[in-house]
Amino acid sequence: MNYEFSERLQKLPPYLFVRIEQMIAEKRKQGVDIIDFGIGDPDLPTPQPIVDTLCQEAGRPGNQNYSSSQGEKSLRDAIAKWYGVRFGVEVDPDTEVCVTLGSKEAIFNISQAFVNCGETIVAPSPGYPVYSGASTLFNEAKCVQVPLQEKKGWLLDVDDCPKGAKMLYANYPNNPTGATCDVAYLKKVQDWCRDNNTIFCYDNAYSEMCFDGYMAPSALQAGKDCIEFGSFSKTFNMTGWRLGYAVGNKDLIAGLKKCKGQIDSGAPIFVQKAGITGLELYKESGKLPEIIQRNMEVYSERRSVLVEGLRKLGLEVVMPKATFYVWAKTGMGSAEFAEKMLDVGVVCTPGTGFGPTVDGFVRFAVTKPVDRIREALTRMEKLF
Ligand SMILES: Cc1ncc(COP(=O)(O)O)c(C=O)c1O
């Protein structure tokens, strides 16, 4: 029997980090000591109060059953309350909030819920690969990748976007560039989407990874003609726990819930209860909880060491105000640069993995301690 992938699946390129993992495994087999700044997976632990709640809740019989695909009422209430404390936005936990299995699935499922075959999805280039990959291709939709430009601060310019698109994805704080935006920008994008009958999907997965006093806004501060995706992954170092949320317009949330109802049965209840503990760490508006602030100080030091080191090597780098990514201009092709780096055991991600328009850039995730960053910079000195 010949087990052939569906035409839809055949159209999908291999997921970026799967390819990079294979290259790393090859090098490790050759005995190379790898310093991996590739995937954006925090090396810091989940805060202890969250782990403690998980341990207590996992043993309770009522928590071992199915949840619901829209999530537990108690977590939806906590997310709604958190939106009030963190962003000053009032949301209805029953109609405007959906718990998700990390934000990745919701970013994919929202297009399943609203985009028809042949319709257009706008995705930034560079951008998180799911927008132009699974979200578009599994739907047999058409993706228009709109270039983000360095001279525009890597902000998606709606004047560059095609009218008549069904859906548009934007993401700030931005992966991979580290760029940030303000509420006025989000209002401009939301107004444009409303005027053009385009669904505004805002990916706010890095909303809490901010430095130097910057606090990322929510798209809902600009209005509710949007759906916003958030995540526990980066905020609380919980990538493996698979917990996120979608908040926004009630019709968009209803579509997401209907889609998810056919696909998943919700995050484990004990994981959701632990998530509530995380959100309850937030006590004051405009301020990160101490435990998150301490994590951000660790990333901040690493960011500074790497940015300054790369600048000394002659690379052009902007000090990011958010995310744990450093986006560097390489002066040569992205893939060529990444391959040279791999020769000295240092992994970074070629910009072209995030979109076709950023050849000449690479992304470093500062998920390694300062001594390893210094070691990587020493190795890189040999290359330049
Ligand atoms: C921009 C962006 N959005 C969404 C995600 C998905 O994160 P998760 O599914 O862990 O919430 C990521 C993960 O790296 C990301 O970079």
Write structural notes for this entry.
The structure is a single chain. This protein is of the alpha/beta class and 384 residues long. Helices cover 39% and strands 14% of the residues. It contains 14 helices and 13 strands. The strands form 3 sheets. The chain has a 7-stranded mixed beta sheet with strand order 2-8-7-6-5-3-4, sandwiched between helices. Strands 9-10-13-12 form a 4-stranded antiparallel beta sheet. Helix 5 crosses helix 10. The chain is globular. The mean pLDDT is 95. The structure holds pyridoxal-5'-phosphate. Pyridoxal-5'-phosphate (PLP) binds at residues 40, 102-104, 128, 171, 175, 203, 205, 231, 233, 239, 244.
CATH architectural designation of the largest domain: 3-Layer(aba) Sandwich
CATH topology heading of the largest domain = Aspartate Aminotransferase, domain 2
Helix count, DSSP H or I runs of 4 or more residues: 14
Terminal Cα span? 53 Å
**Ligand types:** pyridoxal-5'-phosphate
Instruction: Provide the succession of SSEs.
Output: HHEHHEHEHHEEHEEHEHHHEEHEEEH
Note the overall shape: globular
Secondary-structure-derived class: alpha/beta
The CATH homologous superfamily of the largest domain is named: Type I PLP-dependent aspartate aminotransferase-like (Major domain)
Please give the domain count.
2
Arrangement of strands in the largest sheet: 2-8-7-6-5-3-4
What number is the mean pLDDT?
95
List its salient traits.
alpha/beta; single chain; Aspartate Aminotransferase, domain 1; 7-stranded mixed sheet; 4-stranded antiparallel sheet; binds pyridoxal-5'-phosphate; 13 strands
